[in-house]
Structures are given as C-alpha cells and as structure tokens.
Design goal:
This protein is of the alpha+beta class. The protein contains 14 helices and 10 strands. The strands form 2 sheets. Strands 3, 4, 5, 6, 7, 8, 9 and 10 form an 8-stranded mixed β-sheet that branches. A two-stranded antiparallel ribbon has the order 1-2.
Length: 426
C-alpha cells in the first residue's frame, strides 16, 4: 500500500494554520527589512595613497510600516499572492505544491515589474525568500506527516499480518507474492487446558480480560524468540518460525519459545490471582516441515498464513498433551533438527488427517544441562520403549513400573502398562 505524500481527504488544520502563521510573522517581520547596500570603486593610480579600490557598505531599513503613506498595489498584490500560496499548497502533493510555489514566485516578479511604482517598499528578494521558506516548511511538515502516517499504518497492518511483511508491503507492495511460496518452517500451537470450564465461570468482561492477558503473555514470548503470531483461534495461539522471513534456527527458536511459555507461566498466574481470575495451564505442540506461506483467501478477504501438513501435526500434537500429561509435545521432524537437545519418546501415533504416523517426544532441555540422574532416567525410558516395541513385555513392564515411581508422570506410564496388558491378552 503506497501512501500519498499528503492526503487531501483529511487536510491537516494545523498544517494550514501553521503556514498562515508563518506567513504573518514573516510579513510583519519583513515590514522592517534591513537591507545592505554595497558600493565598489576602483581607485588604483588616482592618488599617492597606493589604495587600489574602495568598498562602501551601508545598511538600513527599506520599509517602515508607520511612516508609509500608501502601501501601493505592489504590496497588496504580493500579500495576496503569498496568502493564496499558503491556502493552496496544503491541498496538493509535493509536485503540485512545487508548481504552485513556482507560479507564486513568477507572479511576485511580474507584480514588481509591471505594477511597481518608483518606490518598492518590500524588496523582491525578500518576498521570494518567503516563498522558499514557506515551501520548505510545507516539505518539512509533509515529510513529518508522511512518516507519522506510515508508522500508524504499519502498526495497524502489523496487527493483522507479520511485522516484517507489513514493512515489506510498505517498501514495495508489488514484491510481495500473492500466490505463496513453499518454505521449511516450525509451527507452535498453544492451547488452554480446561478452557470451557474456566470460561463458564467468568462473565464476558472477565473472560475478555483473562484472554487478553493470556494472549499478551504468549505473544510476548513468541516475539522474544523471533517468532510470528499467525492467528488467535478461541483460546489457541498459532505461531510460526521461518515465515515470512526465512530462518535457519526455526526449530530451535520454536522449542525455546515453547519451553519459556511453560517455565514462566507462574508469572502469568500471579497476575491472574491478583485480579481474582482463574489460573491457567497450557498444552503446546510443535512441528517442523514444509508448508505454503503467503496470502490465502478470496477477493473479499485475504489472510497471510501458512498451510501444510506441519500445521496439522502441531495442532494434533498439542491435543495429545492431555492424554500423556506432559506440557509440550514435539514431532520427530523437529527432534531431527535439534541434535543438541534431549527428548523423551512418548509414542508413535497416526494423527487425524495424516496417513503417515508421527513419533512424539517430550523436550527435557539441552544435553549439556542434563544431570546424571536425568540421563539415567532417559536411558532407562529408551530401553523400556525398545523392549515394548520388541515384545519383551516383562522387561518393559519392569522398567515402566520403576519409571512410574521414580519419574512420572504416573498417568503416562499407566497408559503404557495398560497397553502392554492389552497386548498380552490379544
């Protein structure tokens, strides 16, 4: 969207009044214009002093308002031209204003040549200087207004599309693809656990306040880790890394954002408690993969978003956090992008809308920060999962039972133990 240099549809009254005030001040000041007169004479050889030339500089006011009997046609016509210039310039953009300024300067010269009497009260150079100053003032105010309007539009636009895309739209609207591009991205879905029950206990005003705090909290962390808020859907937040700007660390940034959301949730709940609002618990799903990035919609409304299998997987993984009682679930493709992070394998499932199964993982942190006890538990869990896949039920039950008591969550390991019991009966 290309902004005009100046928008005639909403003429700035301040702009016009400022120009008129500037003209008034300039005219009143100019009525006592101080002029310098220079006289030069070559005197070399005219006497024995050896002086080569003489320079005579005289100064004085060229016009005194209180001593003039009649201003004359030149004065009034010049004043009319300058006031007309002030009234017309704000109505046009830069090119039109420049033409009007040139025409005004030409009219001033014409009035001095054709209408001037033997005495010219206001020097022509001062009137032309006033035209230049007024035009310069117009350019400065127009530039300031344009910058202000661009920032206002960018702030408004960035609430509906990513901030990077809003800036790109303003720089060059034609450079933004309208068909979308395929790109490797990471998607994060964040959803409130038990939202329906919480919303039923709140008035509409309290619910709006509760959601605004939640959205602000999640969005601030997403932006901190260089992510883009794609959309809000009820109580869900969809965030994207790798779009609209490409990123080589999209999987890592998405995971860091998800872990930060869970790690800092106590600060959000403290604010809820201070306002007598229910606290929040969140489930997060993260997936990595190719997706189409760009505008999507119809001639009536367009939305900049991402679509693809990775979006569907992230949303389905977020729903699985309730079943496995873990705060964050990450897809196998995201895990493949993060060799320096440690994950606990949860299960391999076929999510709705996808034929290929997805192996789900819970992130535990960086490999360097993991202590010896946690490393031993991760190793025990991997051995238990391998035994379960191999059909070694006794070993799997023994390890899962031990992990249930020492690590947890107990409900997740109960799920594994029930699955083994059903497999034995089959």
């Amino acid at each position: 969207m290309r902004l005009p240099y100046y928008n005639p549809g909403r003429r700035s009254l301040t702009f016009s009044l400022f120009l008129l005030l500037a003209l008034t001040l300039l005219v009143l000041t100019g009525l006592g214009v101080f002029r310098l007169y220079f006289g030069f004479e070559w005197t070399a050889g005219s006497d024995d002093s050896g002086q080569l030339f003489t320079l005579d500089v005289r100064g004085g006011r060229s016009f005194n308002l209180f001593e003039v009997e009649s201003f004359g046609r030149t004065f009034w016509s010049s004043l009319f031209i300058l006031f007309l210039l002030c009234a017309l310039m704000p109505l046009f953009r830069l090119t039109g204003a420049a033409i009007i300024a040139l025409l005004s300067a030409g009219a001033l010269v014409f009035s001095h040549v054709r209408l001037a009497s033997n005495t010219s009260y206001i020097p022509i150079e001062f009137e032309l200087l006033m035209v230049a100053i007024l035009f310069g003032t117009y350019v400065l105010l127009g530039y300031m207004g344009e910058v202000r309007d661009r920032k206002r539009v960018q702030r408004l636009l960035s609430q509906y599309v990513p901030a990077e895309l809003a800036r790109q739209y303003q720089r060059d609207p034609e450079a933004v693809s309208r068909s979308g591009v395929q790109r490797e991205i990471s998607v994060l879905f964040c959803d409130v656990v038990g939202f329906t029950a919480k919303s039923e206990a709140l008035t509409p005003q309290q619910l709006a306040e509760w959601l605004n705090l939640y959205f602000t909290y999640v969005s601030r962390i997403v932006v901190r880790y260089r992510g883009t808020i794609d959309k809000y859907m009820g109580d869900s937040v969809m965030a994207v890394w790798g779009a609209p700007s490409p990123s080589q660390t999209h999987a890592y940034d998405a995971l860091c954002a998800g872990m930060a959301i869970q790690a800092e949730v106590d600060s959000l709940n403290k604010r809820y408690q201070d306002r007598n609002l229910p606290t929040v618990a969140m489930g997060i799903g993260i997936s990595t993969g190719p997706a189409m990035v760009g505008p999507l919609g119809s001639e009536y409304r367009m939305d900049y978003t991402v679509v693809g299998d990775s979006v569907n997987v992230a949303q389905r993984l977020e729903a699985q956090t309730r079943k496995y009682r873990v705060p964050i679930i990450v897809s196998d493709k995201s895990v493949a992008e993060l060799p320096d992070m440690v994950f606990r394998e949860l299960d391999t499932v076929t999510v709705t809308g996808r034929s290929q199964p997805v192996t789900m993982y819970e992130p535990l942190g960086s490999r360097e920060a993991l202590d010896e006890q946690a490393s031993q538990r991760v190793d025990m869990h991997e051995r238990a999962m391998a035994a379960s896949r191999a059909g070694d039920w006794d070993t799997a039950v023994s390890l899962f039972s031990r992990l249930r008591e020492e690590w947890g969550p107990s409900s997740m390991y109960d799920l594994y133990l029930r699955g083994i019991e059903q497999a034995r009966k089959a």
